[in-house]
Amino acid sequence: xxKTRRSRMACAGVGVLAAIGVMTGVAPVASAAVAxxxxxxxxxxxxxxxxxxEGELATLQCATLTVPMNYRKPGxxxxxxxxxxxxxxxxxxxxxxxxxxxxGPGGEGVDLPxxxxxxxxxxxxxxxxxxxxxxxxSTPLECELSPSIGxxxxxxxxxxxxxxxxQARNDEAACERAAGGLRPYINTPNTARDMDVIRGVLGExxxxxxxxxxGTYLGAVFGSLFPASLDRNVLDSSVSPDWIWREQFKQQAVxxxxxxxxxxxxxxxxxxxxxxxxxxxxxxxxxEALAAKLATKPIEDPMFGTxxxxxxxxxxxxxxxxxxxxxxxxxxxxxxxxxxxxxxxxGSAEVRDAAKAAKLMQELGIAKTVNGVFQTVxxxxxxxxxxxxxxxxxxxxxxxxxYGYGVYRAAPTECTFRSFKPADKVxxxxxxxxxxxxxxxxxxxxxxxxxxxxxxxxxxxxxxxSVADEGTHGLYSRNACASDIIDNYLVxxxxxxxxxxxxxxxxxxxxxxxxxxxxSARAPQPADVTxxxxxxxxxxxxxxxxx
Length: 547
Known about the structure:
The protein is α/β, with parallel strands linked by helices. It has helices at residues 39-42, 121-124, 161-178, 188-201, 214-225, 246-268, 271-274, 280-296, 309-319, 326-341, 349-365, 374-377, 387-400, 452-460, 480-492, 529-540, and strands at residues 23-26, 44-46, 49-50, 61-68, 78-86, 97-101, 126-131, 207-212, 230-236, 299-301, 305-307, 438-442, 463-468, 499-503.
């Protein structure tokens, strides 16, 4: 879960980007338990073609399936779902297929097998990616782009709440105008049904599954609806089964505040380096004073634009989850404070570097959606219609949780004004009839707040792997300890203990003032902040593969 709409989501659909296969003929279905009217869908025979003419995607094979738009009326409208395949490298050890989902909702997954091409799972599994219904190469759900009616500050006044409401209402109306008859059938249960069709088309009795973020909920729904079709399964960076969906968003803001407090405590122990205060409380007071100044007098950089309080809140809230970046964030805030106080010129090298890094962080942090899936799937559960509920929460979040997405996560959304009736009820999650799986959760994950992981593991009676003092969202291939556990489970079937803790990425190697007493404290590296941030983003593959 990571997409936000206040950056003015671009709701244009994505067309076919490369050559894809079509379905021809009829193949034998692996499972006989096919509902009436669905045999022709399960019995499709895929015609595989390269996913692209050149580049990395050309190493994958793609095919397009036909599925019912409405599974209750399979003889009516049909839509397309595109899948991809990276065949197992060791056919003699092949143990089936591993279906992958990056999350979102609305994440494109055709290219996801490439993200794990060097992992041990590729030896024994065909890695299967897919663009879920409504997304990418599959039949897209398109929304009109609703024009922005104003600015949306991170700490709005009560008078500004109405703008959030009006924008949400306009966004919903714009999506409804372009959605045709597809929107009521873009939901998690139908995507899970598509996954079972994929299983049948591939001739597999069971699938194995690796899902990230929203994909964890999708995997849990699939297992609840099709327990006989699921084998080994990993839910990486899990949503909470009890927070579908508004509370899940609110908890993002709570997690961002927790990470910010932890970072301020670390910075406070290094006042000789950053000069922002000697304790968490002092750093908080200093930075709140800075935020107040930025609200009335932003820093203007001719090359990198305006740095105002909203920019500050976004950067501190979203990126404090990454412990290795705490030094860079501390240096950015230090430079902004100096510019605001007048001790550094706005055009100085230090301030310009900080502004450039801030722009890089802000652009990556607030993702734009490309179609209507996110604001449709998240409306599959009922949201409050009483605006006073939202306004009360917005007042609370403005004061208590202003960082990152903050107030946005408490504000009205399209779902407040939902204009369609969902085709399915929210699924009652349970594990009955398929293997014990893994739930992987980072302590400081602000996209899927930590408590969601233990809650999902408890609900499904799965093993929980926690990653301590870590904020990365999507841990497979990014955290060595968790990745090794996942590989051992998926490849060898070996479960870890019921509760296991892995170490996270280390905090910056800058000694606290107390530890540095009697010797010179090591100053931050002189390399520019932007370069350090860009290197971290590249190393962690942020913004790629996992939502």
